[in-house]
Amino acid sequence: MTTPFERGTDGPKVIVVGVDGSDSSLRAAAYASGLARRQNALLAVVYVQPLVPAGAAMGAPIADTTGEIAEGLAEEIRAAAERVRDIWTVRWEFHTLRGDAYGGLVAAADSLKADAVVVGASESAGHRIVGSVAVRLVKAGRWPVTVVP
Predict the structure, then answer these.
(1) Structure confidence at residue 81 (pLDDT)
(2) What own/partner pairs with CB < 8 Å and gap ≥ 24 does 28-33 have?
(3) Is 23 or 8 the better-scoring residue by pLDDT?
């Protein structure tokens, strides 16, 4: 016997959105926020701090810079949530990891038991050759992936 359909119990419970400060990632965050609101899902905003060993070997303060970016993104998200608090309620968390964007998003989606992943389309021309994070996530086939232009 199958379980009958129950209104309000289907759909994603955890939506992961990758942000890096680019315009497309901020559009993805806005889209994911609307989806999370409509589905009453948790929005997990994930920033993956890139590892740049060559820069670190030359003494560049890469960790400080990416940490500042993470703090800035978290503050921007908090401010946006506060501005719309009375008309737009979304449960959200901010997560930051270190590594490559694809690996970090996969790790976050796995650990949070994500039901969906939302990312912005790549703005880099080089990704046409090596493949973008979005394409790699889609090819992984582990979650529904929405790519926002």
Answers:
(1) 64
(2) 28/118, 28/119, 28/120, 28/146, 28/147, 28/148, 29/77, 29/118, 31/118, 31/146, 31/148, 32/118, 32/146, 33/88, 33/90, 33/92
(3) 23
